[in-house]
Amino acid sequence: MTRPIRLGMLTPSSNTALEPITYAMLGGIDDVSAHFSRFKVTEIALSEQALRQFDATEILRAAELLAHAKVDVIAWNGTSASWLGFDRDESLCERITAATGIKACTTVLAYRELLRRIGAKRVGLVTPYRRDVQERIIANWNLEGLHCFAERHLALQDNFSFAEVSEAEVAGMIEEVIREGCDAAVVLCTNMRGAGAAERLERRFGVPVLDSIAVTLWACLAAAACDPSRVRSWGSLFSNPDLRAATAIQIEDAISNHENEGKR
């Protein structure tokens, strides 16, 4: 019997969308499970108090608890590096692996890898965040070569409120940035309901729609050497042959790293 694959995910404490949507995407895949550990996040803003929520000490404590479940990968399933800087997630991955011995990934670093692989030149950015947070995100993404061509945001601050935005409203925002001419639409928030609309909008407009919850699951599966194409009916992120080819490289790297670790 093949050993089950366990995906570990670090989750903002006030997030109510991430877990049920992740479980739905994994429906029918009996040998893969998702496990969650929370740390305190209640608001998204640029104040000192709000930024302090993402101190690595609290995140690492939650990661160490996930390690008790012997997960195959630990993901920071959140988008804070978009306004704090991509280097924050790079450092966080290194620290998680050093503390737990488990490979790590994050939503934001997965977006960077994915958008570069598909060659997106005009990103349509959809978020629930305040304008000042949105502007910081756009500046940081542009520095990484991820050019935000169009954007929509809801000017919300309470993290719990993000999941109260209906899928229909999120889909409307995605449609608006696509109509402005973006070549990839990004729903940047792991407490927002964009994943369920992705496949329908992609069929209608022919533009990739990348939701943060789905992108993180994609990265976790690849890091755990599990083919992401096993996820069905959740958009081109999982079904497009070109994107499957891209993740195959990551899968091969993960397998190679695992084999090398076994020889040590």
Based on CA inertia axes, which overall geometry fits? Answer: globular
List segments where confidence is low: pLDDT < 50 over at least 5 consecutive residues.
Answer: 254-264
In spatial order, strands of the major sheet run 2-1-3-4
| Mean residue pLDDT | 92
Rg, Å, rounded: 17 Å
> Main beta sheet, described?
4 strands, parallel
Total strands: the figure is 8
Order of helices and strands: EHEHHEHHEHEHEHHEHEHHH
Determine the number of helices (DSSP H or I, runs of at least 4 residues): 13
Distance between the ends: 25 Å
Give the percentage of residues in beta strands.
15-25%
In percent, how helical is the residue content?
40-55%
Structural class comes to alpha/beta
For this structure, the quaternary state is: single chain
Verbal overview:
There is one protein chain. The chain is 52% helix and 16% strand. The chain is built from 13 helices and eight strands. A four-stranded parallel beta sheet has the order 2-1-3-4, sandwiched between helices. The protein has a four-stranded parallel beta sheet with strand order 6-5-7-8, with helices on both faces. It is globular and about 45 Å long. The model is unreliable at 254-264 (pLDDT under 50).
